[in-house]
Amino acid sequence: MDKILEKINKLSLPAVILIAAIILGGFYFAVEYNKQRSIEKQQQIKIEQEMQEKLAEQQVKEEAEQALDTCIANAEESYHNQWDRECKALDRLTSKCIDINELSYDEYLKKYGLTDEEYKKQRGITDDSSLAGLLDYFKRQNEECSCRLPSYNADNINENLEKDKAECFKKYPQN
Q: Is the pTM of this model over 0.85?
């Protein structure tokens, strides 16, 4: 029995060392595994934050571009309205031309009770395409129903447009 105890004592030290090594190895592995997962998680969070920042920057840039575009469109609309008011005030446009400048093609046809074919016939258009009347209407807006203002009026209106556009670029600078 003493021999058995002696053998057990001789074997127990290596077994204890082996078990301790397994436990310490497992603990070390668990610590390193958690550390790696933590690093990966931090990297993923950093990547997500960078993506969110880029998206936010892109959104801010797009909003600034949209605001600038809207501002310029408003300035140009104001310019055209001011030009039309001056033309009307100087009695340089007929009532039909005023309608042509203010109404869409369909609204114009409706107001005067015309069909596309009747409009083309009145205007002497022989082209049967569906866009011929509309193209003529736009041509009338730009040629027949535009008015030339005296230079002092035109210069003033053009200066206002340039000032309004410059103000837009100050208000909504682009990077």
A: no
